[in-house]
Design a protein that fits this description.
4 copies of one chain form a homotetramer. By secondary structure, chain A is of the alpha/beta class. The first copy, chain A, contains 6 helices and 7 strands, in the order E-H-E-H-H-E-H-E-H-E-E-H-E.
């Protein structure tokens, strides 16, 4: 059973409503995210790195376009360090969960992946929903708490407890041993 | 746009792990559930009442069998008052969300239903997940807080705030005016 | 990898539009269907027998009700010999394919089933669509051609060739060796 | 209710198994495809043009990359005239049907589209499966028979009859009046 790192919604212009509340938490979590990304990439082809990202504007399945827009935005300093490389997979999502109306479940199955490590944003929204949708599909979920960013600290804390208690997730941190097997 | 009342997981033997923690909350919420059920039934064919319930044992899509098992269990006093009548629809689910691998979305579409009122259990689990999956599908969600039962009060409280803030749900109570339009 | 026999739409009142054209073919295919059903049941718990059937009338997930309606209909002679027994699984479907908005994929996964043998009706409709949806999900499909019934012989013949050529199905007959492994 | 033109699998390198059998039919159907594409584009924002295309190689949701690969292939003469423009939507699919594990159903809903005109390839495979999956979702389907390409003429003919008879599709031609309302 293989593991994938899933990077959620980090190719972002931060122009949405709650961005001001979110940004400080993203800055805090960036080192944790970079650390798990670095650890995953070091594993080479043993670990897939999969970006799952909201679409902006019209639906064109064009990750070059999405990346360019985010890098041209006011918060490119939060995008640039996490940008996909040539080995990254990339899935565009329409709604909150990384699984809803996306090919992700199919891709994981094809790559023999039974466990996903989630990083990115927002802890009490997309990360929570994705952990649930993974659990419903009998996938194992690990969430390094210092590699996810939130809008509301108290809801994020409740979300992490829900993942741990009700979704069988392993809530750990970015330096945990064995994060990628 | 029509409204449906969705009764979640109340045809139940309460033999699962957390039942002891859940039961007092079910007893507290039972009057609220009965009140919304009564209000929905009074509306006649204007409001569909849809039971969505976990399957027990082998998958036989047999609501008679499920109901009999629950009524024969030790907590029939919590099942009997809420039992489906001949006008109720009934959907069997395999996992937590009322939408996952069930025909519910299709049924709602066929009946022109764009808004669901959720009652039943568990607030911080199936109710939360179902509210999310409804929101993702652009359905309006109303949750009467005195008609849902929880295992952990603090997680239930966080779940209701998540529904209100992040899923556009109307968190209200069982006596609210206009609950069924 | 386990095998299941899937019996499609045989709990039926035959009141739909094309019933007159369908009935002679059902009578022809009945012995083949009974033969595969008998072979599957002989295997005991090694082979799951799963009925997947259209719902009639209101959605009540009630297989007793569906069966009673079909047995009370004018063609009970085509229903009675194929009726589910206490070991059968039963899934209600809303539309043509056995997979669309049903828990079937989930159930097959939980039972470790990677191969399905399809019997029932209609060859060039539900059987074809179900073979396709199984193939898309990387399930192996076997269709005994003497155990499926059609409305239009020429379309049924084309459908079987499509299944064989484009969906990797094994089109065989009800007496084939190794039908259930 | 709006209409979309869906262009299926025309961004293609034609390196798959049956390409030799498919190519003559693609050449025959190219003028019909160009005609419907031109008619759709003339309608401006009234008609969405949506490319739904197989992914080649690793999953990167990158339509620039897919297009470049196809234009660099040996059959760029069949790709170039049909290339997406800046107004086209683009959905990447993993398997045969345009709906399976893609955001297409969601996109159509968001754009208020209730009717799709299908062109592209392969008539007796992806086009057939997509017509079925559209019909199951209660979408109207139109197929101009001179704008779809096949591998086997007899199966394509059966497929078109199935679409017409069993999936309520309007099988017409690329010059038909009212193709885009």
């Amino acid at each position: 059973m293989r593991t994938a790192l899933v990077v959620i919604d980090m190719i972002n212009t931060y122009e949405h409503e709650d961005a001001e509340q979110l940004l400080p938490s993203v800055r805090d979590a960036l080192p944790g995210m970079l650390h798990v990304l670095d650890r995953a990439r070091t594993k080479g082809s043993d670990v897939e790195v999969i970006y799952v990202n909201d679409n902006f504007g019209r639906w064109r399945s064009n990750h070059d376009e999405l990346l360019r827009t985010a890098l041209d935005g006011p918060h490119s300093d939060l995008v640039e360090p996490l940008r996909p490389d040539d080995d990254s997979l990339f899935v565009v999502k329409a709604r909150h969960s990384i699984f809803y109306e996306t090919p992700l479940e199919y891709l994981l199955g094809q790559h023999g992946i039974g466990r996903i490590v989630l990083c990115g944003q927002v802890t009490e929204q997309c990360v929570l929903y994705s952990a649930l949708d993974a659990h419903i599909r009998h996938l194992d979920v690990t969430v390094p708490r210092d590699a996810v960013a939130h809008i509301h600290a108290d809801l994020a804390d409740a979300a992490l407890r829900m993942m741990e208690r009700n979704m069988g997730a392993d809530v750990t941190d970015s330096t945990a041993e064995g994060l990628f097997g």
